[in-house]
Amino acid sequence: MGRAHHSVFAPARAPRYVVVWDLHWRVIDCRRLEPAVDPRTEFDRTIAVWARDGWLAQSPGAFGFTFLARSGERRLLAVTTRDPFSTSAQSFSPFGTRKR
Q1: 17 near 9, Cβ under 8 Å?
Q2: Entry pTM
């Protein structure tokens, strides 16, 4: 049985976002990427920018995310199709919304 393989680095028609969050899901840095922009290049560029301030990527980011670490602190860097400032529901619930 095959598995679906999703790559955030594949060409897309919609914008993507390169986002850095703290471990409480607060956005620290966010850049919107238009569809023509290569997300892998921007992901690597973001790692390099943070590295200049002493942050170390903890993985190569093959799946579109990595943790950045410095002096016991961690940040999550990810490429996503989801606007991190969107206030709409971000997950599916099989229970729906409860009406009272």
Answers
A1: no
A2: 0.81
